[in-house]
Amino acid sequence: FQDQVDLLRIHPNGPSDQITCEVLAIQFARRRESARPPGAQPVAAPKAAGGLPDLEVQSVEARGNPVVVRAPSQQLEARGEDLKYDLQGQSIVLKGSHEVSIKQAANEIHARRVEYKMAAAGRLGEASAEGPGWLRGQIGDKLAQPLQAQWKGQLHVRPDEHNQHVISLIGEAEMNYGALGKLEAAEIHFWLNEAQ
Description:
Layout: E1 2-9, E2 17-30, E3 55-71, E4 76-86, E5 91-104, E6 107-117, E7 126-130, E8 133-139, E9 145-151, E10 154-159, E11 165-177, E12 181-192
């Protein structure tokens, strides 16, 4: 689809989610068949109403200046020039020639490129961002502590071997976290205990 494209995801009990862009490409694939026993004959692909194959969205790519995502259902807003959303791999890549931004509730990140691989519902996934960039947000629900960070090189968020998440700020890193104060270094690595 081309020229001032709006893609809506309708929610019957709330506002719609929306992607606005200049060019939109949606890739579909046949719904996956259930696992069949060895030696069993393949079953014809299921058909949707009207005799068309039963398809599901595999990926969405949007380009524009800007691409804007507004998803009130997730308290999310994102801006960039190029968005790739892989539903099968559960990953999102947002990039631009200048700065891209993603804001979810009280948390916000700005960088040249952001990639996020989703985890199970309610869990923190893996992320990387090319700098220069900055983020700010709240950690914790009850006595939420404000976190602010910036970096010139890269940001990485990934699980470690102890089921914690390590957040790495690389290149003229700076972090300010609540009562702990401010830290500046070439690299900063800090660990988060994820509530189960």
